[in-house]
Amino acid sequence: SMGNWLVNHWFSAAVLAAWLGINIFLFTYYFLFFDRDEQYFYTRAILGSALAWARASAKCLNFNSMLILLPVCRNLLSFLRGSCSVSARGQPHSMAVPIPVPIPTLHLSLQCCRRTLRKQLDHNLTFHKLVAYALALFTAVHTIAHLFNLERYNHSQQANDGSLHAVLSKMHLQDSNKWLNPIHSNQTVSVGFTAASPLPRGHPEPILLPPLQTVEYVAFTTIPGLTGVIITLALILMVTSSTEFIRRNYFEVFWYTHHLFIVYFIGLVIHGVAGLVRGQTEESMKEVHPQRCAEFLVHKPKECREECCKDPEFGSIPAESWKWVLAPVILYIFERILRIWRARQKVVVTKVVMHPAKVLELQMQKKGFRMEVGQYIFVNCPAVSLLEWHPFTLTSAPEEDFFSIHIRAAGDWTERIIDTFQQQKLEMPRIKVDGPFGTASEDVFRYEVAMLVGAGIGVTPFASILKSIWYRFQQNDQTLKTKKIYFYWLCRDTDAFAWFNDLLASLEQKMAESGKADFLTYRLFLTGWNTSIANNAALHFDTVTDTVTGLRHKTIFGRPRWDIEFSAVATAHPRSVVGVFLCGPEALAKDLQRSCHQHSSLDPRKVKFYFNKENF
C-alpha cells in the first residue's frame, strides 16, 4: 500500500518532489519572463517562442549543473553521515557534548530522523543519475531551441521585405554597437532601405556586407556555438557510457569517459560570455519603448524615426553559469585534493590470499586508518593502471589490526590485478587507497533485528559485520544493540562459498560457546546447482554438516521465497524495527523493497522493515 511505501521512502519522495518543483518553477518562470517581458520584444520579433524555450532550459541546466557534483563528493557525504548519526557503540559521531533527551518519544523521533537522513545519503548515486538525465533532457531542449534560433536569425538576415525582423537584422549597418542579429549576410542593401526599394537621388552607394554567415558557420566558429557542440558531445559520451552493462563489463570505458566532466564544466562557464542573444537595454527602454516605437521602425521614413523615436539599443544577456557552479566546483576541487593527499600515504600489503573461484584477498595496513563495519575504499594499483580507481567493500572488522578487501575477477582491471599479485612473489605491487567511506551497511548495529542479504561477491560487507560480531562476543561487549541477525547468501556455484566458510564456522562455534546460538540464523542458497550436486546432497541429508559448505545449516537449492522469509521474521519479532541490508543486483533489490512494503505495519507498535542497499 501507499502507506507502507511511505514508511521507507517518504523522505526520498520529499527530496524528489522538491527537486522537481524547483525545476518546474525555474522553467515556467523564465519561460514566461522571456516570452512576455517587453525588454525582449524585439528579440522575440526575430526568434519567436524559441527564445523562451532556450532561456528557460538554460536556467534548469545551470541549476542541475550546480547539483551534479555534490552526490559524488564522497568526503562530504561521509561528513554528513557522521553528523547525523550515533555510532553503533552509542556515542555521537560529531557532537562534542551529548544532548540529554529526557523524553523517550523525542529520543525515538531523533533516532528516526537520523536514520532517515542517513538512508537518503545512501541514494547519492541514484540522485546523481537523476540529475544527469535532467541535464540530458534540458540540453536537448536548449540545443533544439537554439537551432531554431539560428535558422530564424539567418532567415531574418536574408529577408528584404521591410518586416520588423528584417529591419532589426540590418541595424548593425548603421551602428556596429546596435546589432541584434549575430548572423550577417552578403546581400547588397542600402542603409535604411530594403533591397527592393528604389534608391533616392543622391543616396550613397549600397554597402556590401561580409561573406554569408550560415547556421553551420555560427555553430562552429562562435564561442557559444563551439562550446555548445563540445559540451553536448561530452554529455552524450558520459551518459551513454554509464549504462549498467558498460559499468559492469567495461569499467575502464566508464571511468575515463566520465572525466569529460572537466570539459563539460569549462565549456559551460565560457558558453555564454560572447552574449550572442541580446535584449533591449534598460536605458533604451525608457526612451524607446517597443509599444510606442516598434511601428516607426517599419512604416516611417528615417527622418521621422529620428524625430519621433530613436533606434533601440541592445545589450547582451550576461553569462550566469559560473555563478551557479562556482561553489560546487571549488568544493569538488578540494575533494580531489584530499583524495590525492590520502592516495600518497603509504599502504603496506601484509598478506595475499588466493581463494577459490579466482577471488583475491589483500590484507593491508595504513597509518591512521580507521574504519567501521560495512564501509568501502577506492583502490589503485599503478602496476595495473595509473589512473583507474575501483571501489571495494572492506571485509575486515574494525577490531582487527589490518584492513582487507576481496577482489573477484570481473573485468580487465580485476583480471590484471589478480594476475599481477600471483606473479609477484618477492616484491608486492604498490597499492594506493582512498577512504574509507560510509555505506548503508554501516548502520546495521543500530537495529535490534537485521536481515543481511548478499549475492555472490556481494557478501563482502557482511563479512566485516560478522567478523565484528565475533570479536564483540570475544570481548563480551555489552553495548551491542543488535539481538538477532538473519543472513542470506545467494551463490551460483559451490566454489564461491569456500572463502567464507571458515568465518561462518568459527562464528557458529563462538556463539554456541557464549550461549547465544540463536543470535545468528543463516541460510545459504545455491542458485546454479546441477543434478549431481543435488543427488549428493540428498544422499547425505542425515549428516550433521552440509555436504556443500561443511556447516551445520544445510544449503538450499534454488532461490529464496521472500514472502515466506519476511513473514517468519515478522512473526518472530512482532514489535521490532528490522533493518534489511542488501549488497546485490537491482532485480533482487526490487524484490526486497516490495517485501519491505508489504510486511511493514503502519501501526507504530508493530513491525517495520527498513530497506538499505549498497550503492557505490
UniProtKB/TrEMBL annotation:
Residues in coiled coil: none
Keywords: Cell membrane, Glycoprotein, Heme, Iron, Membrane, Metal-binding, Oxidoreductase, Transmembrane, Transmembrane helix
Domain FAD-binding FR-type as annotated: residue spans: 342-443
Transmembrane segments: 12-34, 130-148, 217-241, 253-277
Claim: Membrane is one of the keywords in the record: yes
Membrane topology label: Multi-pass membrane protein
GO biological process: defense response; superoxide anion generation
Catalytic activity: NADPH + 2 O2 = 2 superoxide + NADP(+) + H(+)
A molecular-function term among this protein's GO annotations: metal ion binding
Listed SUPFAM superfamilies: Ferredoxin reductase-like, C-terminal NADP-linked domain (SSF52343), Riboflavin synthase domain-like (SSF63380)
Protein name (record): NOX1 oxidase
Annotated organism of origin: Odontophorus gujanensis
